[in-house]
Amino acid sequence: ASGSDDNDVVVIGGGPGGYVAAIKAAQLGLKTTCIEKRGSLGGTCLNVGCIPSKALLHSSHMFHEAKHSFAHHGVKFPSVEVDLPAMMAQKDKAVANLTKGIEGLFKKNKVNYVKGYGKFVSPSEVSVDTIDGGVTVVKGKNIIVATGSDVKSLPGVTIDEERIVSSTGALALKEIPKKLVVIGAGYIGLEMGSVWGRLGSEVTVVEFAPDIVPSMDGEVRKQFQRALEKQKMKFMLKTKVVGVDTSGNTVKLTLEPAAGGEKTTLEADVVLVSAGRVPFTAGLGLDKIGVEMDKAGRILVNERFASNVPGVYAIGDVIPGPMLAHKAEEDGVACVEFIAGKAGHVDYDKVPGVVYTHPEVASVGKTEEQVKSLGVAYRVGKFPFLANSRAKAIDDAEGIVKILAEKETDKILGVHIMAPNAGELIHEAALALSYDASSEDIARVCHAHPTMSEAVKEAAMATYDKPIHI
Ligand code: FAD
């Protein structure tokens, strides 16, 4: 019963790329099977990524607010403490509910779900080692590889998920570490560093590059780093980890300046390795059927998500492009639309990116550095949340909206927002960018008062004219 009949579409991997592709394919009337080895659907994102991290970010933020801000708002209680098992249980419940929800969506849409490890036998056959110990072969006219990504390991640093953890271990620590060292200042490291910092850990972030989150607009990045430093997060930039000693009670890291020089040591109770993610294709048998990959191990596809092997497609983290859940979902929908003979479209230049710290940082389109390097004449409009009435009313006014627009036409090129809810505010900008709007188009839309969104309108006014409130 496991889908040994011919399918129109077989999806390998049940993450945001794979499960969305499977549901969409079924909705388009295609006979569809999805193969997932994990035992639960939702991939990295739902099980050990986006969702559990946001659960812990929210819970830890509540604790931090209760401890440090509530009294200021006139809300007092004698003491606040962390119940870590309860915090973890709420996270686990959220994950379990959501992954089961996808199983429900599979049933509703009649997607056949096979639990097991898939590997290509031919371009139209996948052999699955099922979770219950059996083997079954799933055949399909079109096979979509959506196997996602895995943690990138660092040479000489062995992850044990206890004291030296990946993001997965960092989402399930049993105690609050006194000292946490984060290797890698990307968004995952900063989010997990924020969680444990709020709960009381001393957090030091070690980064090889000269900057945190390299993809961020430079001016916003500077303000962001300052905001994190105010929260007592320490940064050691241009620094590399050259040795790890786990023999003692604490982990001893040996550090060296990126350019070489004198070594120093740093002690930690827990070390989080978050130096990036790599495409995951182990055991898939891609070499057997001759699928082309790049040097980084990503599957090469054309604009229709087709690999060089007819009938074999790839989407999500396993192909080039932003390694984000919503990008994987867009890939999944477009890929099956093409398979079904319809038009599909994903524009990687308009994929929003969000760092879910406090404040959040969100962006869409180009950074000022990118616009400069393109040689385009541009204008910048900025508006600080310190001048936004809602942000002042709730006393959470750290942040800025920055809009870049083409000088001649006022067409929006990029929008960068640092604000408590930047991840929600960014979609107005994403919509504007997708519609090739000008900054004046945003400025002339009536925005409700008092809202954080008014800062977007004012920054838009500042781009081609003058803002009112500053
Ligand atoms: P995945 O989600 O990795 O799913 C691939 C699935 O394929 C896995 O479940 C795997 O078990 C399965 N699989 C692999 N090989 C096989 C095989 N041979 N047979 C059967 N099954 C197989 N992104 C965001 O957009 N927002 C966030 O806030 C965010 N937060 C994150 C936080 C953390 C800590 C991490 C680690 C990641 C985060 N991400 C976030 C990134 C996001 O999780 C990924 O971009 C997204 O999951 C990619 O989706 P995917 O479907 O391509 O792959």
UniProtKB/TrEMBL annotation:
Its EC number is 1.8.1.4. Disulfide bonds join C45-C50. The active site is at H449 (proton acceptor). InterPro entries: Class-I_Pyr_Nuc-Dis_Oxidored, FAD/NAD-bd_sf, FAD/NAD-binding_dom, FAD/NAD-linked_Rdtase_dimer_sf, Lipoamide_DH, Pyr_nuc-diS_OxRdtase, Pyr_nucl-diS_OxRdtase_dimer, Pyr_OxRdtase_I_AS. GO terms for molecular function: dihydrolipoyl dehydrogenase (NADH) activity; flavin adenine dinucleotide binding. Coiled coil: none annotated. Gene3D superfamilies: 3.30.390.30, FAD/NAD(P)-binding domain. It comes from the Eukaryota. Binds 1 FAD per subunit. FAD binds at K54, G118, T147, G148, S149, D317, M323, L324, A325, H326. Homodimer. Part of both the glycine cleavage system composed of four proteins: P, T, L and H and of the pyruvate dehydrogenase complex containing multiple copies of three enzymatic components: pyruvate dehydrogenase (E1), dihydrolipoamide acetyltransferase (E2) and lipoamide dehydrogenase (E3). This is Dihydrolipoyl dehydrogenase. It comes from Punica granatum.
